[in-house]
Specification:
- The protein has 354 residues and is α/β, with parallel strands linked by helices.
- The protein folds into 2 domains: 191 residues, Leucine Aminopeptidase, subunit E, domain 1 (3-Layer(aba) Sandwich), CATH 3.40.220.10; 146 residues, Zn peptidases (Aminopeptidase, 3-Layer(aba) Sandwich), CATH 3.40.630.
- The protein contains 10 helices and 13 strands.
- Helix 4 packs parallel to helix 5, helix 5 packs parallel to helix 6 and helix 6 packs antiparallel against helix 10.
- The radius of gyration is 25 Å and the shape is elongated.
């Protein structure tokens, strides 16, 4: 099934909020600093408050918009010179606690709101004093993770368009590092959403062989190679435990080996990522409870995370060597399935009683 995780156009701008074309503008709102007896938002959001006819200051005064984390307040822009019509304020908690983690959470709320309201162009304002290292990347990650929506298997899609443009409105000026951080966030979010898509795949369509084909398609690149061990190679290397899990299924197992080897790799240990890739786990003859059986299609989520990570690593190009390994099989209750008490031999020669 074709992926829908392509990241939108992401850019950083330092122009006035009134000049940016968008369907929705999101801004964080902080709790008032009682210690100082002031409200920094009153000054920071002054021009925006004028554009919405004072709705923000009225909401602050009435307690409708307090700045508590996750709180949401929507209003409309009435100033016709502005190029956006809808405003979302998201509670961000105390300003002194605003870091990358909080920024990601606030941005995810904005992403979900954009998705639910069919906004294809979103602006997220980063207020003065809130642009510490890592926050630009975190905001992009949060928006794209929050806007994620997987409709590939719906017969009748609602027709909600995906997010196509994300603009970060920064205070002051924009430098190359800002744009680099934003692009890094887009890569990480896109690859995380790819892993989420893979985990959503139904077991009848996403078999070990399909998993292997998808790894070749999505991870192979100039610095990354993908090798697939089939059932013959698995047997020749003595991987008895993987063979045992797979032997009750008509679907043969695979081992996915992804190697990222840049030319400028620093000497030292290789980073290894290993993810479980059981595309459906019935429990074999020790059958799992029916109430949660449908969730067993996600027993390959660890392998999906490794695949997404290797794709991201290939694009970000860190100067270290990385290997990702995903043993993948289907665990079914066939007459050939392993039994409790069976003894299998692992690739390292160790015998294991099931």
């Amino acid at each position: 099934m074709h992926s829908t995780t392509a990241a939108p156009l992401v850019r950083c701008r330092a122009e006035g909020l009134d000049t940016i074309d968008a369907d929705m503008l999101c801004a964080p709102v902080f709790l008032p600093d009682d210690a100082r007896g002031g409200d920094d938002d009153a000054e920071d959001l002054g021009p925006l408050d004028l554009a919405v006819g004072g709705a923000l200051s009225r909401a602050r005064a009435s307690g409708e918009c307090t700045g508590k984390l996750h709180e949401r307040f929507f209003t409309d822009v009435i100033d016709t010179t502005w190029r956006t019509r809808r405003v979302l304020l998201v509670g961000a908690g105390p300003r002194e606690h605003y870091d990358a983690a909080v920024a990601r959470t606030v941005a995810a709320t904005a992403g979900m709101a954009a998705r639910d309201r069919a906004a294809t162009r979103l602006v997220v304002w980063c207020p003065p004093g809130c642009q510490a290292p890592g926050i630009t990347q975190a905001v992009v990650e949060g928006v794209l993770l929050g806007a994620f929506r997987d409709t590939r298997f719906k017969t009748r899609d609602t027709g909600t368009p995906p997010l196509r443009e994300l603009t970060l409105a920064l205070d002051g000026s924009v430098d190359q590092q800002d744009q680099t951080d934003a692009e890094r966030g887009a890569i990480l979010a896109e690859c995380s959403n790819l892993a989420r898509e893979l985990a959503n795949e139904p077991g009848n369509l996403f078999t070990p062989r399909v998993f292997a084909d998808r790894a070749i398609e999505l991870v192979s690149g100039p610095r990354t190679t993908v090798e697939i061990l089939d059932e013959a190679a698995i047997a020749s290397q003595g991987m008895g435990l993987l063979q045992g899990v797979a032997q009750g299924s008509a679907e043969p197992p695979r081992v996915i080996v992804m190697k990222y080897e840049p030319e400028d790799a620093a000497p030292g240990p290789v980073l290894a990522l290993v993810g479980k890739g059981i595309t459906f786990d019935t429990g074999g003859i020790s059958i799992k409870p029916a109430a949660a059986m449908d969730l067993m299609k996600r027993d390959m989520a660890g392998g999906a995370a490794v695949l997404g990570a290797m794709r991201a690593i290939g694009q970000l190009a860190p100067p270290i060597r990385v290997i990702g390994i995903v043993p993948t099989a289907e665990n079914m209750p066939d007459g050939r399935a392993i039994r409790p008490g069976d003894v299998l031999t692992a690739a390292n020669g160790m015998s294991v009683e099931v």
